[in-house]
Amino acid sequence: MGQITQRKRDYVYRALPYSIAALLAVGLSRFPFHAIEYFTYDARMSLAPDPSTSGHIQLVTWDRESLTSLKGKPRVTDYTHLIQQILKVPIRALVLALPASEDVKGSANPFDRLEGTWQERVTLADTLRLVPNLFIVFDPLNVPLPGESAKLRLPAPFDDLRVMSGPISRDLKNFAGDNVARRALIRDEYHLVLQPTVAQLINPVSDPKDYRGAFEFRGSLQVFVPYRSRGAYPKLSAATLLSSSDQAESLKDKIVVVGDDSQTDTADYIKTPHSRDILALPLVEAHANIIDTFILNNGIRKLPYGIDVAATLLLSLLVAHVVFALRPLQGVIILAATVLSFSLLAYALFVLFGLWMNMAHPLLAAFACYYLFIPYRLILEYRKRWEYQQKNKLLTQVEELKTNFLGMMSHDLKTPLARIKGMAEVVLRNRETLSSEQTEALSQIERSTDELNEFISSVLCLGRVESKEIKLQLQTRDVNSLLDEVLRKYKYLALEKNIEIRTELEPLFSIRMDIDLMRQVFANLIENAIKYSPEGSSILVSTEEVDGRILVQVADQGIGIPRDEIEHIFMKFYRSRQTKNSSIKGSGLGLYLAKYFVELHQGRIMVESVHQQGSTFSVQLPLDV
Ligand code: ADP
Questions:
Q1: Is the pTM for the entire model greater than 0.85?
Q2: How far is residue 40's CA from residue 38's CA, in Å, rounded to a whole number?
Q3: pLDDT of residue 365
Q4: From the CB of 591, is ligand 1 less than 6 Å away?
Q5: If we measure between CA atoms, which residue out of 306, 334, 329, 304 comes closest to residue 319?
Q6: Measured from the CB, is residue 575 less than 6 Å from ligand 1?
């Protein structure tokens, strides 16, 4: 029952982040985040190469040079001369973008801003009447009120000339609200505005709704313009055109857009995705960009909302997965790679196909999920670590209890054991009164108590090792003499098995060491060599000085150690599989203690062994500890 609830809880813990990620994704997708979205939109547009132009448009501008040669702003007569020059070649259309003004709203008459007499105005009106396909832009900075564009009319003497609304819409309050021009109007409530009307001369489109990327906005039809950076269109200075009529050739068959680029009034300029400078792009160029969007029909198409939500959902779920299922570094790398690939995909779609994929939602959701889930994961990890710590604590306590218990028990066993051995010795002293079987039994008791005693000593020693009680009692001694002493002790054991122990002891300097501990180390190695060797084999004990260290080696021709067990034999209580089932006795503590003691002396203990052929144990000791 408890297990089922635990599993259920685990399941909920694992499913929770994914559900939160999904909710967050759907929730975030409902808000537009215009500032971020248009930031990425502008970045994509400025990083993308400019789309090529249709080649149908030629600009004629009143630039600084023109103003210098006219000694001031162009007057009515200058316009008349300019138009006469333009009319020297056949042109497709003339778009007249007279100086704009932010102050004048609604029914502004653009000709009012030109200086000139009534008679001069009449002459200009007469000249304009000769232009085929004349389009006069009415108030480019204001989008006409619904139904108003049909009523636009200029005052006399221009009242019979066609004037049209040709707005350059900027994001004033709607969309990004940053005064940057990104969209263009196709149609107000009922009528096509100027730029698509001009474009229809070259590329007629029967239903304006068919324009690529066309979308409805508050009763009007609009499109996002792939604005080019400044200077994308051929530009002729009005001054040049006025001074020589040869220049008019370049206007042949073109849609000629006349306007101001004298950098004297910011109202003649707009900000674009490419630049936020107040003189970023002259209105003439903006008109050219918009007209070209309709000629080329390459408005930017927004991908459907469903794709936006799907991408947001996908990225959020991925973040949830990355944060919870992967290692932190791996997670960060995968996340960075995903965000980068997503951005590249959005960029590629924009550049290659003019498709606008929302980036704000997916990226925001990814970051929000990441920052939300990281602390959540930390909490979970902290909990897990706390559980491990508790478990560890418990294990250490159990281990301590076990060692203490072993220690206490061994200690208590020592006295009765000594007594048993003593009694056996006492009885053995009167051998004559005993039968041979009784003598043998008593000798067995003596040997067994010796073995048990040795085991108990090892366990007690282990207790001291584990409680870090052992401190080195350093004395100066020759290693060879210590080995001789140990070898003497094991001489009889070797004789019993008819094992020959050879020695090759090089003369050595005496070194400082804990004699008792090192005696125990050598005794263990020599005893093992005898224990694990067959009768009649031989053992070689050698010493030498190598690279400023003393090397003691004990080599036998015994049963050897299987390769997969070599790394374990220095572990506490480890006994090889082959010895566990044999009659060879042992505690599995000897080598563990030997290693510990040698390392206390800053030395090393190593083994080389071939199964069934023999082993060589080496002890390296430094000359001074
Ligand atoms: P034990 O009391 O079992 O001898 P040790 O810690 O001294 O415990 O040795 C651990 C194990 O290493 C032994 O059980 C044995 O399997 C193996 N071993 C040690 N020395 C030798 C040797 N000279 N030849 C073969 N195996 C050995």
A1: no
A2: 5
A3: 94
A4: yes
A5: 334
A6: yes
